[in-house]
Amino acid sequence: MDQVGMGNAVQERQGALAPGEVLPRPTSSQSEGFKQGRSVLNSLLSGAFAGAVAKTAVAPLDRTKIIFQVSSNRFSAKEAYRLIYRTYLKDGFFSLWRGNSATMVRVIPYAAIQFCAHEQYKRILGQHYGFQGKVLPPVPRLLAGSMAGTTAAMITYPLDMVRARMAVTPKEMYSNIMHVFVRISREEGLKTIYRGFTPTILGVVPYAGISFFTYETLKKVHAEHTGRSQPYSYERLAFGACAGLIGQSSSYPLDVVRRRMQTAGVTGHTYGTISGTMRDIVAEEGVIRGLYKGLSMNWVKGPIAVGISFMTFDLSQILLRKFQQFNYSAR
């Protein structure tokens, strides 16, 4: 029988099912694979949206913090306000978001990869330790966050370098993201794109690990004390803010070192190694005023950004699941 005849025969067979007879269902492995693929897609979309919303909300504060981090000027809340106000008067309101396009190009894939990787690492570690579908024990909980942050940072680091350069330079120097890559490659060499990579990874490990650990732990404690498995939105925001405050404080000196090394080519400094950069900063500015410069601003910016990020991710996940369930039931 030819292929057309075979196709017709199959269609006739499907159209003439005996009473009570049903078509074969997908196997359990196929169904599990489909669910897993949908879960990954949901995590990627929710993470991307969460990162974009959070970073846009705090972009002016983030830009101000970076400018102080890479300079030897003394930081204070008053000086930060003056810088923001002078920038507004000189270049206009939207200049406060200069570099945010580069931030979005980095943050959207970074947040998508980080949140998605965290969900997958939780699933893998849960299977390994026998906690599938449950909250992980403390050590695997910390490990899942650290590995998720490291994965995202390794993949998106060049975009972080571009963001830092655009934040601390006048708009005449770099016209767009591609221009930054071209000028750095031509004038400083391709290896410059990964300058500051080591302190970034060393900072991400405790930051991401502690942030995710704190958020997951607070949700667990909340469920045990209230009997509600799902916190309210404002509770998620508060849990995320606590996670951001603790996580960023733990790794802040490495964040300062990373920014100095990233922007060395445009600030006139020659930072080569992590230890050398730290020594130079401490010798010139002191430990607290140098390595912790801008931390007080980070205590405002960080909790807001991380709180918004965690809350938005969770709520986006819930909405996507409900939407998919509605579509499935409507069929």
Automatic annotation (TrEMBL):
Its membrane topology: Multi-pass membrane protein
GO cellular component: mitochondrial inner membrane
Biological process according to GO: transmembrane transport
Alphabetized SUPFAM superfamilies for the sequence: Mitochondrial carrier
Swiss-Prot/TrEMBL Solcar repeat ranges: 38-124, 136-221, 231-319
Principal localisation: mitochondrion
Positions of region (Disordered): 1-33
Compartmental location: Mitochondrion inner membrane
Catalytic reaction(s) noted: 3'-dephospho-CoA(in) + ADP(out) = 3'-dephospho-CoA(out) + ADP(in); ADP(in) + ATP(out) = ADP(out) + ATP(in); adenosine 3',5'-bisphosphate(in) + ADP(out) = adenosine 3',5'-bisphosphate(out) + ADP(in); dADP(in) + ADP(out) = dADP(out) + ADP(in)
Keywords assigned by UniProt, alphabetized: Membrane, Mitochondrion, Mitochondrion inner membrane, Repeat, Transmembrane, Transmembrane helix, Transport
Protein name per UniProt: Mitochondrial coenzyme A transporter SLC25A42
Function recorded in the entry: Mitochondrial carrier mediating the transport of coenzyme A (CoA) in mitochondria in exchange for intramitochondrial (deoxy)adenine nucleotides and adenosine 3',5'-diphosphate.
Family: Belongs to the mitochondrial carrier (TC 2.A.29) family.
PROSITE patterns (UniProt xref): SOLCAR
InterPro entries: GDC-like, MCP, MCP_dom_sf, MCP_transmembrane
Pfam families given in the database record: Mito_carr
